[in-house]
Amino acid sequence: MPVKVETWAKQIRAGDIRAISRAITAIEDRLPVADELLRSLFFDTGQAFRIGVTGAPGTGKSTLVDRLAAFYRGKEQPVGVIAVDPTSPFTGGAILGDRIRMQGHAGDRGIFIRSMATRGFLGGLSRSTADAALLLDAAGKKILLIETVGVGQDEVDIVRLADCTVVLLVPGFGDDVQNMKAGLMEIGDLFVINKADREGADRLEQQLRAMLQLAPERNGWKPPILRAVATEGRGIEEVAASIAEFERQILENGQREAKKIAHWKRRLLELLEARLIERAMG
Prior knowledge:
Layout: H1 3-13, H2 17-28, H3 32-41, E1 49-55, H4 61-74, E2 79-85, H5 97-101, E3 111-117, H6 129-138, E4 143-147, H7 158-161, E5 164-169, H8 176-179, H9 183-187, E6 190-193, H10 201-214, E7 225-227, H11 236-252, H12 255-281
Parallel strand pairs: 1-4, 1-5, 2-3, 2-4, 5-6, 6-7
Helix pairs in contact: 1-2, 1-3, 2-3, 2-6, 4-11
């Protein structure tokens, strides 16, 4: 392995912010050195707990992620945040709304925040999100918060990457039942009614409970419904406590390990598919 890659990997393991930033850029640009780097770092991964935050645009995902990050930093946990933003039609890069909203963490070296452009990739995530998460895991981040772009009912790819998926809903989004149908209902490990001080929160919770009663328990876990007002920090501790309880349960019943194996089987197929397409196009 080239000395440059060895040195770079060492800097990432030490948590060097510039080295991590350069590496994620290499991943996004699909440079050959990125593959070498990830191979070098792979055996340093597996310690981070990945929390996916999804929901329709306007539900307050960025604010909730910001508050959760502050909560975990208060517990002295190293935190990584990957916020998948829409792609700029002019530059092809991310429209950096999330990093602007999270400027309160700018001076904290225990947290790394990165916005990633979707670059036309559907499903709520960027093609490079999984590799960036792997990199932050190797860099020693114990909590990874992954915020999806907010594309609606098709936004279900996060369940394949995250250990725990948090689905955000807000009162007053038109036909609430319609908003809760399809994939989002199936992927949620816990549901958060954000902006719960708004009118209609009670009605939304009743509808959500009725729908969840029809769904079978998954390995003994019944997704809880929580309320929050993220802009005021209300309900954040309760959300973090439910995430911790979910983590405890999936560790005890072996589901986290099973999910990790399934994830890498899918990743291998995706990598093979990408290589075949590149070879065919080349």
